[in-house]
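$ ./design --mode recover --in tokens.txt
reading tokens...
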């Protein structure tokens, strides 16, 4: 190896010069409050003194709060701040004797062309590999105090504590949460850090001194620099090499980026396309971090190719051009446009703003966008549902294409997922709720794509099955329509039932208080005011549409949280009965009234919200052959678990004034009996007379059953633990493991219809079995025919639980 002293010193000089330029660029793009926080965060971490706002008390057992950045030198502004604190607080001086923090960096969009005045700032607080868990907890507490101080000033920051062996020691995985990728990606995260990091104090990055040709022999080269005393070990931070990223990290990274795509779709789409490019180059992947390091080492001044976002754009654009993929080229430009323009418009005039503006308009000229297209893009937060759906479709298709490419890379290389088992369950559940469809599920469009503008007018049009129409409801952004207009205008959407049509429009903000609502149907009772009453009742039932889902919620079976039942919106049998003059009316049993023993329940719409914040709508109508109340009861059982006590709210609404008191009392009585039946399945059954026939409603492990007369009531299997029967969930694949004796397991598999298969006395490796099951289902979901079915599923991977020895309880299965 060639340990060239002068070359190393040139690399060090250019690294530090580039770092100074990055700090200047970062500050120039911040508002005054962000500039203040940026300058003070190192000070807050360096000191733990009563006079400094970031002070945290030591632990009761005497453990000191870690603070102090190694070899940190305050800038004149920082020194003036500390002096002002010591004078005002009456202290002679404020001193930091600790140096627990090896180094402080920020990373991400800061200083790049993607940074805007309101961009958040991510900090890495680097500490020794030997720092104890107690000390880490104290430092986390201090970081939270600092984060809160920044928030009080209107600045969003995140501080991550990173041990120096975070990327070289496999035992140092973090848990996945909203900000941390946990075990989903390690070295790809290090790649992002190396290409975007800004050094703020402490030890400098030794990786920046390594020539490209020695990346594969990184450890030996770095050790040689120390051994030959070209650089001092105590001055440099070694986080490891990115030269050998294992293939099994590609899949975990894809899942994590899709997860981030739920809340930050354009940002995540850009990153997952980059991951696809990386996978296409495997095993000779050329990482952006290495490209940017090369550029820094070869240039003594700033060039655009040192910018992490611009470099990312160039690499993806070249790949998509080779792939001849114009739709995703458009998406790439869209992602890049949003990232650059948002920050540039809010920047104060400066040389850096002028430089960014010059690059921006050069790109626009290359893209050859029309004024109309630019106007459409700039109106992003006033898009209507059709525009949001169009862009959502491009985003989703692109992300899924990248995901499949990364999944196939793993399958070709027979990977063993490096992503931790707990993390893959959390990520796949979150992705399932956001992207997969299932019967009755309401699609909630991500408002970070664009704020959906409420329509001024909406018309719901009922259509019968024909050569040109499907049987169901079409939604138009028009006022009252006639047949000619219906044939000429393109609908916003189609739904199989009216309930789903109204709820999806309402939940996505298409209907506001000012929206004019019309209905085009042969049903005389369905009017605009009636639909308006329904949407008002929806608002009362679900005052908040979005709810926070915790990882623990996703690890546990999906439970029903809120239920709203809407009766007789579409039909009014009581009104028809009174209109026809039936004198033999005794409404004590609302399901068998009058001389013809008709049911007063003509239609039911049930809206559910679950613990995973999924909305489901199911609609039922009375016909000559089907009773809507029995269909409703069966479906209620499909959604609920036995002995489930998670229900927060159950509300009931009834439309039509005829016999209103009787209908309300009868339905509330049935709903209460259903709840009792589910909560007490051993004792829980009840009888109901519908149109003169007696039905028995009981609860078994597959839900509520409705049997006619004296027919046999379905029984539970005797050889399945009670906790399994109570936790089986419709629509999901679940595996329950019960240890019979040490190392020997009974496995109970519940499919999407709650049918249970039993596998006795398994003695193999649980981890290998779970990985094989996940790979099997991933292959099943990665099926081209999936795109041609109405309910597309890509992430419905199985759930895994451990059953207690007595069979009465379950917990998420822990797999090492």
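writing sequence...
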């Amino acid at each position: 190896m060639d340990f060239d002293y002068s070359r190393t010193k040139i690399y060090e000089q250019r690294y530090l010069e580039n770092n100074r330029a990055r700090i200047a660029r970062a500050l120039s793009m911040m508002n005054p409050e962000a500039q203040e926080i940026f300058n003070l965060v190192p000070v807050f971490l360096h000191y733990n003194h009563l006079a400094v706002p970031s002070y945290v008390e030591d632990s009761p057992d005497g453990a000191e709060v870690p603070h102090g950045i190694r070899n940190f030198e305050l800038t004149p502004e920082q020194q003036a701040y500390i002096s002002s604190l010591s004078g005002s607080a009456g202290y002679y001086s404020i001193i930091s004797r600790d140096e627990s923090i090896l180094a402080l960096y920020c990373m991400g969009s800061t200083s790049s062309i993607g940074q805007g005045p309101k961009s958040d700032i991510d900090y890495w607080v680097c500490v020794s590999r030997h720092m104890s868990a107690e000390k880490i907890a104290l430092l986390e507490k201090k970081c939270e105090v600092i984060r809160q101080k920044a928030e009080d000033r209107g600045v969003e920051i995140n501080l991550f504590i990173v041990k120096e062996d975070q990327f070289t020691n496999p035992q140092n995985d973090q848990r996945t949460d909203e900000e941390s990728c946990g075990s989903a990606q390690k070295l790809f995260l290090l790649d992002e850090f190396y290409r975007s990091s800004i050094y703020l104090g402490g030890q400098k990055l030794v990786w920046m001194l390594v020539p490209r040709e020695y990346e594969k022999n990184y450890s030996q080269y770095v050790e040689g620099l120390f051994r030959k005393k070209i650089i001092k070990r105590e001055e440099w931070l070694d986080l490891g090499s990115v030269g050998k990223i294992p293939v099994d990290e590609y899949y975990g990274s894809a899942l994590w980026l899709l997860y981030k795509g739920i809340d930050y779709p354009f940002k995540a789409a850009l990153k997952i396309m980059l991951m696809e490019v990386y996978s296409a180059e495997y095993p000779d992947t050329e990482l952006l971090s290495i490209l940017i390091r090369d550029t820094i080492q070869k240039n003594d001044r700033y060039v655009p190719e040192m910018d992490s976002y611009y470099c990312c754009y160039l690499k993806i654009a070249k790949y998509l051009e080779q792939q001849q993929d114009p739709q995703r080229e458009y998406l790439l430009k869209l992602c890049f446009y949003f990232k650059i323009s948002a920050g540039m418009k809010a920047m104060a005039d400066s040389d850096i703003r002028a430089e960014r503006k010059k690059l921006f308009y050069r790109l626009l000229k290359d893209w050859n966008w029309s004024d109309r297209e630019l106007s459409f893009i700039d109106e992003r937060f006033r898009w209507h549902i059709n525009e949001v759906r169009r862009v959502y479709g491009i985003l989703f298709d692109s992300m899924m294409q990248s995901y499949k490419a990364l999944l196939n890379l793993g399958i070709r290389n027979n990977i063993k997922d490096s992503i931790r088992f707990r993390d893959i369950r959390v990520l796949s559940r979150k992705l399932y709720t956001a992207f997969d469809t299932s019967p009755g599920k309401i699609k909630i469009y991500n408002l970070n794509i664009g704020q959906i503008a409420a329509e001024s007018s909406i018309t719901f049009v009922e259509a019968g099955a024909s050569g040109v129409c499907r049987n169901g409801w079409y939604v138009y952004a028009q006022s009252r329509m006639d047949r000619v207009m219906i044939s000429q205008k393109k609908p916003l959407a189609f739904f199989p039932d009216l309930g789903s049509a109204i709820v999806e429009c309402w939940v996505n903000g298409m209907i506001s208080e000012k929206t004019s609502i019309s209905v085009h149907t042969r049903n005389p009772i369905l009017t605009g005011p009636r639909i308006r009453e329904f949407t008002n009742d929806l608002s009362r039932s679900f005052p908040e549409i979005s709810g926070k889902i915790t990882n623990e919620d996703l690890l546990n079976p999906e439970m029903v949280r809120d239920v709203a039942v809407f009766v007789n919106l579409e039909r009014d049998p009581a009104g028809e009965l009174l209109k026809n003059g039936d004198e033999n009316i005794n409404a004590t049993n609302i399901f068998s009234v009058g001389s013809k023993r008709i049911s007063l329940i003509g239609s039911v719409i049930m809206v559910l919200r679950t613990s995973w914040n999924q909305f489901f709508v199911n609609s039922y109508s009375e016909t000559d052959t089907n009773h809507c109340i029995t269909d409703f009861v069966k479906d209620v059982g499909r959604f609920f678990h036995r002995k489930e006590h998670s229900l927060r709210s159950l509300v009931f609404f009834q439309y039509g004034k005829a016999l209103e008191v009787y209908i309300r009392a009868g339905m509330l009585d049935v709903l209460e009996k259903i709840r009792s039946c589910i909560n007490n399945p051993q004792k829980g059954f009840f009888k109901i007379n519908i149109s003169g026939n007696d039905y028995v409603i009981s609860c078994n492990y597959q839900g509520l059953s409705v049997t006619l007369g004296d027919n046999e009531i379905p029984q539970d299997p005797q050889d399945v633990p009670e906790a399994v029967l109570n936790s089986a969930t419709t629509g999901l694949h679940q595996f329950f493991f019960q240890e019979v004796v040490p190392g020997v397991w009974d496995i109970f598999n519940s499919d999407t219809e709650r049918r249970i298969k039993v596998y006795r006395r398994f003695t193999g490796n649980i981890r290998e079995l779970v990985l094989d099951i996940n790979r099997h289902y991933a292959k099943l979901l990665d099926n081209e025919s999936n795109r041609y079915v109405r309910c597309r599923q890509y992430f419905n991977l199985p759930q895994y639980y451990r059953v207690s020895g007595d069979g009465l309880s379950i917990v998420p299965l822990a797999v090492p």
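exit 0
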